[in-house]
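Sequence only, no structure available. Ideas?
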Amino acid sequence: MQEKFDRSAGILMPVSSLPSNYGIGTFGKCAYEFVDNLVTARQKYWQVLPLGPTSFGDSPYASFSAFAGNPYFIDLDMLIEEGLLTKDYVDSFRWNLEDQYVDYGLIYNSRFTVLKEAYNNSNHKDEEEYLDFLSENEFWLEDYCLYSACKNKFNQTAWMDWDEDVKFRKKEALKTIKEDMAENVDFYRFIQYKFYTQWNQLKAYANEKDIQIIGDIPIYVALDSADVWQNASMFQLDEELNPKKVAGVPPDAFSESGQRWGNPLYDWKKIEADDFSWWRKRMEHSSKLYDVIRIDHFIGMVKYYAIPAEDNDARNGKWQKGPGLKLIKAINESIGNKKIIAEDLGVKIPEVVEVLEKSGYPGMKVLEFAFDGDRKNEHLPYNWIPNMVGYGGTHDNNTLMGYFSELEYWELGYIREYVESRHGSIEDLVDKIFKVAYESVANLVVFQMQDVLKIGNIGRMNLPSSMGTNWRWRMLKGQFGPQEIERLRYLCDIYGR
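Reply:
I predicted one. Tokens follow.
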């Protein structure tokens, strides 16, 4: 059974939301400054969103790979310091239209051109560290780089639409394309090498400062990903490699048609017959990337919702049994002494509660779900238990300022009474929410950076089932300043975190 967290606090801050000069947060100077600020604020954890390369829609939860890193996070100033780029060359590109938002279109059109220039100026093939990196990551790296090169060859279309021989991974076809695209494949190796080198340096710095990294992994992978292309037999696909059924969640109070995510479902019988080999590798890899692993949609390990692939919504889906404790055992054997956080939000299923209790994994409670008038609501802080993680909100929620601002006065009544802010401003209400979380029995509490800064709904990271405006918010330089840092430090001191 997993050991419990010490009494502590942390901040949810996506890497993409860090300040930088090049349109999106990176592993550069601002990341190190953020770690230093966390230390001063007496925080112990920095939670990030998934670090994988994003596809259409820019969601970190729909990545081209469960193992690869996002090229956008490679810091260009560090590449300049290495002599791989010049400042004038990098500054000749336009990276953003406004500092507060990521412009993914601009970055997509520029970043790979700049990284290709760095690749052309690099002698990485002669570096011992590079050869070690190739060896250590061979089980996923080669197929991912080949997949990325094929995406270029086939005009960025999904692997399901590639030439039949490549789609079905015929040996001769793969051999030919590897030879034809050799330099392009090596370019993607270079990108991953630089990503992991920079990330490992940043993580080591954070750990030296006693900051632990919480990483987020989605339970499912994207259909258009190297993972599915490489391991098609591991998923519920037909003879043409199209999904038979897809992932999602059933209708509930938030959506009368449910949510159809569209991810391919695992063939758990085949995966179990292989002793969960792919999952073991995935978790072992994640345990090197992070100090704590949050598993998004943990419910799906115990019981998953299967929707007919041809359906447009989730109404006709059915619950199916997952591997449960068998997979938990495999995960625990793979991650050593690293900890797991189980995202168990949504439908309450007795089997999930039982698995959580037996595993010792802490579940989650979210304050934005707490104030519906039901005094038995499990998200209310007086119903919390020590072995859980309390959140103000998650990446799928509005910011606290945005959430409270959109409620009617009568909806705010119970919240104001609960936190004793009967006549205070919305800003005061946010302060009081922090207070009730920090003084609670929960061993770990985590708040979004936007809530620390008291940013309204313009800081919302994601609105589920929408596209075009998500995953864009960024913190401005100097915005996480002495006042905000002192407030967090004070709360940690007062409430023993």
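The first helix runs from residue 29 to 40.
Hope that gets you unstuck.
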